[in-house]
Amino acid sequence: MESLIQERVMKIRQFNRFYTNIIGLINQNILESPYSLAEARILLEINNAATCTASSLVEILQIDPGYLSRILRRFKKDGLIEAVRSMTDGRSQILNITEKGRATFRQLSDASSSQLVGLLEQLPQGAQQILVHNMAAIQYMLSDKADTSITIRRHQSGDTGYIAYRHGVLYEKEYGLDHRFEKYVLQSLIAYLEDPSKGEIWIAECCGIIVGFIGIVEINKRTAQLRWFLIEPEFRGGGLGRKLVETVMEYCQQKYYNHVFLWTFKGLDAARHLYQSFGFNLTEEKENDTWNNQLIEQRWDVMLNAD
Amino acid sequence: MESLIQERVMKIRQFNRFYTNIIGLINQNILESPYSLAEARILLEINNAATCTASSLVEILQIDPGYLSRILRRFKKDGLIEAVRSMTDGRSQILNITEKGRATFRQLSDASSSQLVGLLEQLPQGAQQILVHNMAAIQYMLSDKADTSITIRRHQSGDTGYIAYRHGVLYEKEYGLDHRFEKYVLQSLIAYLEDPSKGEIWIAECCGIIVGFIGIVEINKRTAQLRWFLIEPEFRGGGLGRKLVETVMEYCQQKYYNHVFLWTFKGLDAARHLYQSFGFNLTEEKENDTWNNQLIEQRWDVMLNAD
DNA sequence: GCATATAGTTGACTTTGTCAATTATATTGT
DNA sequence: ACAATATAATTGACAAAGTCAACTATATGC
């Protein structure tokens, strides 16, 4: 566990070194201009901000006030900005960009844009989109307002396909199951879609990505089968499984099912503990003869008290 | 089209500003140490490289030779590195990190690691993984050795689920189709999985991400139906559709199918042109009565010459 | 073996950034 | 009302970071 986070840290640091170079590359043309990186950054801020004072720049850009003062003096001398004393506070002065300043800013901006366009054009359209999307995801996750909690929602279009997709990929990797298992999962999902009112699917999402799911289908008025329970490997061991089973069991109570069962494979210790803690008992074991003879299937049942 | 790339450039620049701050945050503790960022970077390079000379550092780190020389002098004085004249080239000297240098490096490294651990620990395990994964993807796509070409492969476990998933999501968004359509797609996929030898699925991937697919199923010895043809919106208009249809048509020739047909929806002009260019003719039109009465379904057929 | 190239160093310099002191205005508590 | 304190912006003095050209020593090509 400790080495897992160390590995991630290593990868992030590697990315940081890599991306520092990329940023350096993109900023190169600014370094070739008569303005420094800091100056360009200041001009950008003055250009974009509605109202801007030296002290607000100090705060936003974490820059030394003295240093800033001199840069602003140069900007004024060059006619890029104008400073007018604030009406409400005689100490501070509002910084406004001039037409010339705007032009200069645009020039700097265009130069670094064309650098970026060059970088993007080496990628096909779709890959560009993926790149930008990945950046947005990183930005979101590292921003303080990121909601990295796991949310659970009901079924939406495409979910059944996604469930089959992840079952296919993960059960092949973990148990060597092939297309026959894939077909079996698809069939079970069709049974649900025949009459969605006779069942439900819950999808757990984190940062817009599906990280786990669970479902229930009615077998008869009092009996329901728990199905399609899967947590993405990276999200296991964090209590998400318990949360999903809880959600299902509550639903069953509401629907007055007094008997719930499920089929699983032998050997999943974490899952066994989870089922046991909800009162499930092992009721049947059989060798799997269609997908993989090594696998032992287990049936677990629980009776719910009417209360 | 032009504004699309401009928008991406804007987003990347925003990410760059954001990430520059993140990197600054992580490097903060190095700035608090008696070594500068550049010095830490140099020490890292000497520590990691098998053999290292001043000139190799100049090239890797793009640093001024004079500046580097002085930094190395200080490192030698502090006992962090040792320089021995190269056997093979009397001009250059091999830089070796000493035990003390390694300790110093580890200290700097640990400090910035702990900063990163703090950042990571605000995220759940799985989200950490997603973050690192996104970074790796960016790094891969922007590196010169990135293969951003689109590759086409055959069916693997999970693909049918993925096909259903994307159909469900995109056909709901684009045509408002609901779970009944989702079920229809699943059913068609099951028919394929019943006997995978009577059909085939091709998956187009870019940078490890599925960006489109197509399939074929045998109807009888001489007739096959083209199915599950979908290109992710961002990857449309780049010739991928043609490439996929081509792949299918070649397969049909090999299998001696002389008649291929498909069902599609009216109004997809790009698709119509594509089908026509492969010799397909519109043979049937009917209102769709199960999913959406607004939609007109079309059947297209083509006879292949035996050659 | 001479011209040229490369590895590394040094001196002189510019740019970039920091820190404390200073002036002018604003705010707060009594 | 006004003294104490806080904030906005500037300035001088300085330190750190980085650049450039000149220089020494060794290597390489013709």
From TrEMBL, chains A, B:
Key word DNA-binding present: yes
Keyword GTP-binding appears in the UniProt entry: no
Keywords for the protein's UniProt record, in alphabetical order: DNA-binding, Transferase
Stated name of the protein: DNA-binding transcriptional regulator, MarR family
GO molecular function term, any single one: N-acetyltransferase activity
Native source organism of the sequence: Pelosinus propionicus DSM 13327
Residue span, N-acetyltransferase domain: 160-301
Top-level taxonomic group: Bacteria
Location of the HTH marR-type domain: 1-140
